[in-house]
Design brief:
It is a single chain. The protein has 521 residues and is α+β, with helices and mostly antiparallel strands. The strands form six sheets. Strands 18-17-14-22-21-20-19 form a seven-stranded antiparallel β-sheet, with no helix packed on it. A four-stranded antiparallel β-sheet has the order 5-6-1-7, sandwiched between helices. The termini are far apart.
């Protein structure tokens, strides 16, 4: 079967340039623990090579920018390229950011010839990403990927002779995941030690020998070396995020013009979400003003409708334009969607789901955030912990849930439930007095005792706070909590639940003092 492949050289560095993490036309390389993974042409001209260590790369070109790998950056910046390829190709499989493969027969028929299709793709990628690309055609997975490295069109029957003399390391090309490449590389290292140095020699070993020694990986290697379409575990995968942006000339100077531009851009983003079957995520709105000021705000979008996106962008832009002291105009707007959620990922509940009131409350909260700021609306989120202050935390309405698994874990030694309905941000200092008339303390073995050494039954009688005495009817505890033994600032707490005629309270003793942590309604 005829396949086509598009390859963009040095994509990790190109993605960093598109993300403005490195200046264009300067030497740059992406380095990991194993050394240099990718370079641009300026870095290669300065002597930096793939596989070179970080120190050697820095010595070869001290002014070069050395970046860390970022898979999310590579994937998100590759998305506009994929959208451009969609105009010419029906189905694309992403091997990794920078490399795609596709069934070419239909695309070639529409374009007229492989050469015309390649010219159209190269021009489209140059317009979208501003970088060069190579397009190759061949029969079989490995031959097609190799053909793309040189922009070659392999005629029918020419693919197998094209690959047999290639070095054995080229068999790594169809594998994109780190685990798969590691497993395959171990097999290839063993073959090299046995004197197998070309793809043709791997083919000559035969499928039975390779599969009996290496299992499924061995059979896949033989299929690749034979010029066949290998059943690789490579699928197209949506990036962790994608962006839509627009620059304005002349700049936008009124709320109405900004709202119109925001509607167009938000509609583009909403259509992209619909096409990807996305139901929501985190929307980050960024705006650059002519005076150099930059604003950014994040929103949590549930439902993913175009109207939701348009509303939030319009509200936010109106707020920024009104609050900017210099009254500058907007020159650039960018919408970034991250933390993506697939539609239908959250099934509708039989009862207790989102109601009309919930939707109205959500829109009201979003409106308040647009007017007052992202941190103006908060809600409580269960995090997990042994004390009430640890068990719950506040987060902004627009923030995505933390997905913390600690909330569902058991917490042995925790303060018994139910938790207080009111937890003070700053615990109130009190004094706990026993029936003997003296202040009470907690001994090392977790028992209540009189600070003045009184003997007999020790029970709390009164809770004093700022000269106000609250008689105690009953109590439970103490419960000792001592955690984080490795922290030099750790402390030991003894918790009690007390009941008076008017209120029930959760109190604790720490550092030779008593505090009220919360109240039970």
């Amino acid at each position: 079967m005829m396949y086509g492949s598009v390859w963009i050289p040095d994509w990790p560095v190109t993605a960093a340039e598109l993300a403005e993490e490195v200046p264009a036309h300067t030497a740059a390389a992406v380095c990991a623990g194993r050394g240099v993974l990718a370079t641009n042409s300026w870095a290669r001209a300065a002597g930096i090579r793939v596989g070179m260590g970080r120190r050697a790369a820095h010595a070869a070109c001290p002014e070069a920018t050395l970046l860390s790998p970022d898979r999310e950056r590579d994937a998100s910046r590759f998305e506009p390229v994929l959208r451009a390829l969609d105009r010419h190709i029906a189905r694309i499989t992403v091997m990794e950011p920078g490399t795609v493969i596709f069934a070419a027969r239909g695309a070639i028929r529409s374009a007229g010839s492989p050469q015309l299709l390649a010219e159209a793709i190269v021009g489209e990628v140059a317009d979208v990403a501003g970088c060069e690309s190579y397009v190759g055609f061949g029969e079989g997975t490995l031959a097609t990927l190799l053909a793309a490295r040189t922009g070659t069109v392999l005629q029918p029957g020419a693919s197998l002779p094209f690959i047999v003399n290639q070095p054995v390391k080229t068999l790594l090309m169809p594998f994109s995941t780190a685990q798969a490449r590691s497993d395959v590389n171990q097999c290839l290292e063993l073959l090299r030690k046995l004197g197998i140095v070309t793809v043709g020699e791997v083919r000559e070993l035969g499928a039975p020998a390779l599969s009996s020694r290496f299992g499924r990986i061995g059979l896949t290697l033989w299929q690749l070396a034979s010029g066949n379409d290998a059943p690789l575990e490579v699928t197209g995968r949506s990036p962790a995020q994608f962006t839509c942006s627009r620059s304005f000339e002349p700049p936008l100077h009124t709320t109405d013009s900004a709202a119109f531009a925001a509607k167009e851009l938000a509609g583009e983003l909403g259509e992209e979400m619909t096409a990807r079957n996305l139901g929501g995520g985190r929307l980050t709105i960024s705006a650059a003003l002519e005076n150099g000021n930059q604003y950014e705000r994040s929103w949590l979008i549930e439902g993913g409708g175009v109207r939701d996106v348009v509303d939030r962008v319009r509200w936010q832009l109106g707020s920024w334009i009104a609050s900017d002291e210099e009254g500058s105009d907007i020159i650039r707007l960018e919408l970034l969607m991250s933390d993506l959620q697939v539609s239908g990922q959250r099934p509708d509940t039989l009862w207790g789901g989102r109601t009309v009131g919930d939707e109205q409350a959500s829109r009201s909260a979003a409106r308040m955030q647009a007017l007052l700021g992202e941190e103006s609306v908060h809600l409580a989120e269960k995090m997990g912990g042994r004390t009430p202050r640890e068990e719950f935390a506040e987060r902004s309405w627009s923030e995505a849930p933390s997905r913390a698994t600690a909330a569902s874990l058991p917490w042995p030694g925790a303060v018994p439930h139910p938790a207080p309905t009111i937890v003070f941000p700053d615990p109130h200092h009190i004094d706990l007095v026993g029936y003997c008339g003296h202040s009470l303390i907690v001994t090392g073995d977790g028992m209540l005792a009189c600070s003045d050494g009184c003997t007999g039954e020790i029970r709390p009688a009164r809770m004093l706070e700022e000269h106000v005495s609250q008689p105690i009817i009953d109590f439970a505890g103490p419960w000792i909590i001592e955690q984080r033994w490795w922290d030099p600032r750790r402390s030991r707490r003894a918790y009690l639940q007390t009941v008076s005629e008017s209120v029930a309270a959760l109190i604790y003793r720490e550092d030779e003092a008593w505090y009220v942590e919360g109240l039970y309604a």
